[in-house]
Known about the structure:
The chain is an alpha/beta fold. Helices cover 29% and strands 22% of the residues.
Amino acid sequence: MKQLSLQYISREPNSISEKTSLLILLHGYGSNEEDLFSFATELPEDLIIISARAPQSLGFGGYAWYTIHFNTSVDKFSDIPEAIASRDLIAKFVTEVQEKYNVTPTKTFLLGFSQGTILSYAVALNYPEKIQKVIALSGYINPDLLPKNLDASKYTNLDFFISHGNVDQVIPVEWANKAPHFLNELHIKNCYQEYPVGHGVAPKNFFDFKKWIEERM
């Protein structure tokens, strides 16, 4: 069997057809593929769920998509070359998983948390033909990871669920809440929610994005 570009864990439904949807999970900095996979038991049973592991090992079971420089401004926060490499690696992985399960981009969801969200935005806006539905949890849009020329005509099928904790101590909510304006300028469908939590996913946040997924399956 062909080796895929990223290590991952999966949950498959009892039967897979052309109606089956795919959900790919991208964890945050310092976490691993087990983290977001804990959502799997509460999500629709007929979803294929793939949780990917980031390529950089931080030791002690933690992984990163790229180096983060903490306690600095947003423009110096991320190692951009590493982030671009991971962005493109994720795009390749998405295609590999779609081919493995014979799932189309219209039936594919990408869910990220924190660093995984930053890359989810980047993948969707660079490769809109691969991913159309994105759940962006506790992250932000990094312009350094986007195409130099943004063509709104390529983004007509994109749809985003965006959420953030309004007392997030890791990624300020002010970074996150710029996303709706950015997406609206490109006429990209999106909804934005804030929850009274820090850098995490509140129960209501989970149920809201679960409902969002169910409505689009």
